Amino acid sequence: MLRILAVLLLLVVGGILFWFRESDEFLLSSPIPKVFGTDTKAKVNIWFPKDSSLRNFEDLYVGARGAIAVDYDSAEILFAKEPEMRLPIASTAKIMTALVALENADSLSVFTVSEAASAVGENSMGLTTGEKLQLKELLYGLMLVSGNDAAVAIAEGIAGSQSSFVSMMNDKVRELGLDDTHFVNATGLDEEGGNSHSTVYDMAVIAHYTWEKYELFRQITATVHHYIEATGTHRDFDLYNDTNLLTTYPGVLGIKPGFTWEAGLCLVTYAENEGKKIVAVILGSDDRRGEMKEILDYSFGKFGITVSHPALDL
Fold it and tell me: Is-contact 47 180, C-beta < 8 A?
């Protein structure tokens, strides 16, 4: 009789634990706590920047409104300024656009460019209404020249409309366990009534997750120049990635800059030197490349690594 009761008790306890595991509020769903509070919502991500003995940032001045540098492997914060301040993120929002696209479509999927996509304006890869391109080709336009036309074409191709795609972006934010990020479009453009916003902390998580998961994303954002030949369904495209530190700071391998008048100059960067990997984010800067150089020098210096590099073309 006691054995039967013990088995029944185990079954009940096991059922309760299973229910909690599936619940959004289950504490162990995110085993690494956030620096400024324990995160309880993550379902797919376990990498969150965390405090460390290296946290002594007073000896580096950065004018950006927010900045962070994180050890890619250990998640230790190497530098931070206002890590949880919600700020507009401009075209660094396209990192999430690329992530949602890669998770929901094959890179060879073909999308048709709508009139809305071709007419979106500002940064553009030069799409024309009716052209058909593979997702991979659109991702090059999205990340190298920050094509807003590519962003809308991707969003419509995957979700049927940009608004439905933005809902997918925000769903992904919650899956990653982030509380301070919200998207209003797939482009990062300023909108009347509110812009896409995030924090440097959250953007570091999004960048790390995307970089870690998708080789194609790493390949694209590390590309300086990419030529897409004309086909029967689209013209040719000559794309240059010239606003990151790919050619001016040794070890930088991507990821994405951004700018709007509301957001200022923004930059998300991944770099490797002497076995150390760093992901860094700047939002609201007047000198994103110069300040990112200083942050990377400072962060690699925490490990005794001196990066020898030419003067930056600012």
Answer: no
Cα distances from 170 to residues 182, 274, 303, in angstroms, run: 6, 36, 36
In this prediction the pTM is: 0.84
d(C-alpha 236, C-alpha 258), whole Å: 25
- What SS3 string covers 260-280? ECCCEEEEEEEEEECCEEEEE
> Domains of the chain: which residue ranges?
66-301
Contact 80, 280 (CB under 8 A): no
Tens-place pLDDT, residues 208-255:
999 999 999 999 999 999 999 999 999 999 999 977 899 999 999 999
- pLDDT tens figures, 191-218: 877 789 999 999 999 999 999 999 999 9
**CATH top-level class of 66-301:** alpha beta
Question: CA 74, CA 48: separation in Å to the nearest integer?
Answer: 9
Phi (first) and psi of residue 273, to 5 degrees: -150, 130
Tell me the C-alpha to C-alpha distance, in Å, between residue 89 and each of 47, 169, 211, 248: 21, 14, 18, 23
Query: What element of type H or E holds 192?
Result: none
- Nearest-Å Rg of the Cα atoms of the chain is 21
Each residue of 128-171: pLDDT tens digit?
999 999 999 999 999 999 999 999 999 999 999 999 999 999 99
Catalytic residues: 91, 94, 146
Distance from the Cα of residue 146 to its chain's centroid = 14
